[in-house]
Amino acid sequence: MGRDIFVIAEQRDGHIMKISYELLGKARALAGEDRRVAAVVMGKNIYEQAAKLAAYGADKIIVVEHPALDEYMTEPYTKAVSKIITERAPDIVLFGATAIGRDLAPRVSARIHTGLTADCTGLEMDPESGLLLMTRPAFGGNIMATIVCENHRPQMATVRPGVMQAIHTEPEKAAEIEKYAMDFEMDDRIELHQVVRPEHKAVDITEADILISGGRGVKGPEGFADMKALADALGGEVAASRACVDSGWTGKERQVGQTGKTVRPKLYIACGISGAIQHVAGMEDSEWIIAINTDERAPIFDVADLGIVGDVHQIVPMLTEALREYKVMQNVF
Ligand SMILES: Cc1cc2nc3c(=O)[nH]c(=O)nc-3n(C[C@H](O)[C@H](O)[C@H](O)COP(=O)(O)OP(=O)(O)OC[C@H]3O[C@@H](n4cnc5c(N)ncnc54)[C@H](O)[C@@H]3O)c2cc1C
To answer: Which residue among 253, 259, 313, 318 is best mutated to probe the pocket of ligand 1, counting the most ligand atoms within 8 A of its Cβ?
Structure first.
């Protein structure tokens, strides 16, 4: 049994997805000095894009190019990944807990007879046993469970997007790139007729550098208009606590926290958010955190770099106005 760590990289329309870089960052940290990290990239005409992964921590890149792998389809992808894992016998395989990873990883695990820990938010190596400690929320997020796969190999996990940090250490680093040739007998039970892309790109708060996040303290959906104005002035996005999502003030896709998204923006402005542990779990790794709250004892101030004790309905519009004035003075648009 090998000691390599494999990352199943994702591409859409020939572009490597952010989750692939995040998985490589974590794989590199887990690998230390004595294990190799390999990225597996599947698609059509994907070779040049795949080569980029070297700079993000891959020692080796296995590229599988075939027309059957152009758009994601369960069967050919499962076949390719299962075959590579069976032949190369890695110790650990990481997938993104994305729509693709959530479909692919369970299929692969069943086919190669190993376990899978889904939707992990933490991965560590146990220094004593050498096992991968896979941590994920369980029982609706009320406990964190750490799971090990003792008796089967590889140890496999899907990893929640936005939790792990990509590293871009060595732009000039080269990796061994292998073109992996494979035949696919097309499964005639499944035929891809058409791929329909959404007309409006759904907001992805995990991609934003600046988030203005509203909590119950904004008092209602109209309070989100102030958040939006500040987000627009700063070139950011609006996010929210679960209390606001549950109240129907904004959409679930904007929820930050244990049962929402994990975000790591450059700036997170928490407006009227108390700082419950389930919320903080999703934003505490932001580079800069500013909290605005009327209650000076609110726990959000414990994780904030800058705290403003005051009413969001006064402070947020004042901030927006000051930014607009600043932009006019500086001629920045
Ligand atoms: C299993 C489980 C999973 C959960 N998952 C999540 C999750 O993913 N994300 C999440 O966010 N929560 C989650 N929660 C809920 C979490 O426990 C809290 O209930 C929630 O985060 C509270 O949201 P909030 O801070 O907006 O509201 P509150 O806790 O009600 O806080 C409102 C804050 O606004 C302040 N305030 C009031 N008026 C103003 C004003 N005018 N100006 C400024 N400040 C003001 C108050 O002082 C208070 O601190 C989860 C809970 C459970 C049990």
So the answer is: 259
Give the integer Cα–Cα distance in Å for 135 and 300: 24
Contact 184, 239 (CB under 8 A): no
**Residue spans of beta strands (DSSP E) within 5-79:** 5-8, 11-12, 15-16, 37-43, 60-65
CB atoms under 10 Å from CB of 309, counted, come to 14
Mean pLDDT score, 255-283:
94
Q: Please state the separation of Cα 47 from the chain's center in Å.
A: 23
What predicted TM-score, i.e. pTM, was given to this entire model?
0.73
Q: Which atom of ligand 1 is nearest to the CA of 258?
A: 8
Report whether pLDDT(332) > 70.
Answer: no
Are 132 and 125 spatial neighbours (Cβ–Cβ below 8 Å)? yes
**pLDDT tens sequence across 71-116:** 999 999 999 999 999 999 999 999 999 999 999 999 999 999 999 9
Q: Which atom of ligand 1 is nearest to the CA of 259?
A: 8
Task: Give pLDDT tens digits for 177-204.
Answer: 999 999 887 667 778 888 887 766 678 8
User: What is the pLDDT at residue 142?
Assistant: 77
Our CA dihedral for 26, 28, 30, 33, rounded to 10 degrees, sits at -170
Residue 257 CB–ligand 1 contact under 6 Å? yes
Q: Residue 116 half-sphere exposure, CB side, CA atoms within 13 Å?
A: 22
Q: Is 279 close to ligand 1, i.e. is its CB under 6 Å away? A: yes
- 254 within ligand 1 shell (Cβ under 6 A): no
d(CA 224, CA 132): 42
Decide: residue 104, CB within 10 A, 0-12 exposed, 13-18 middle, 19+ buried.
buried
Q: Which of 139, 273, 309 to mutate to test the pocket of ligand 1 (most atoms within 8 A of CB)?
A: 273
Average pLDDT over residues 145-159: 97
**DSSP label of 183:** -
**Ligand 1 center to 161 CA (angstroms):** 23
